[in-house]
Write the structure tokens for this entry.
Amino acid sequence: MTDVTIPEDYLPIVDGLLWKKILKEGSGDSPTIKSNVNVHYIGTLFTNGDKFDSSRDRNSPFNFKLGVGQVIKGWDEGVATMKIGELAELVCAPEYAYGAQGSPPKIPGNSTLKFEVELLGFQESADNPTAKLTLAKKKKDQGNASFKAGENGPASQAYKDGADLLKDMAGATPEQLQEAGPLRLALLSNLAAAYLKLNENGKAAEACLQALEIQNDHVKVTYRLAQAYLGLSEFEDAKKIAQRGLEIAPGDATFTSLLNVIASKQAAFKKKEKAAYSKMFS
């Protein structure tokens, strides 16, 4: 138990030991025990606000398996209440943090801690082909719901989790492999669409290239790859892929229109580049 007074806007998860305040609502399901969760966090001493750790400062999210003791008890129980995209503050009494011993030199003994935690995503445990297929379908449905709601960050995480599940299908039957290929293709295609919405063009291109390894004449994926290269200002690659799209789907107006956009943007880019050089040497 803690002697520190906890403000009323923090709701108890475990009475006298763990509290939570939601700063931004998330969506979808909460992670279950043994899920691999992906979070960003900032850890501070509750009494004076001194920061002792931050994944954001390292620009590197933290991953752990939920509910198996890899992290402090406050995290195991607090993160289990969160949804994807949720940003919350967890206040942990010493018994749910580092106890009487603390974690010197930054965390004294018997410290009550506050963590700002954002649940970026999670992947439920799946250790056989049947479980992987079931969970990948669930991730696709979650991603679709988020995408339709305009929540492209959670959508991209759900699609990525689903696609990653199907990377290794060791022990799968021929029927399961036949099901896994099209499902992974759909997840990667949708992932590319979500990344394009987020202006993450490099990641979108990577997702498309993985999808085209499964089916190299997929029209939507080819179009999205051309869009991604255009977003990266890689005009020649964008043009090449759009022309490939016309070979796959002759006369498709979307590729013809995209080629016009590429030509226009490339001309504007060259004009701007030329002006910059002229200014530099004038």
The longest helix spans residues 253-281. The two ends are 71 Å apart (CA to CA). The CA atoms of residues 40 and 56 lie 6 Å apart. The first strand starts at residue 11 and ends at 14.
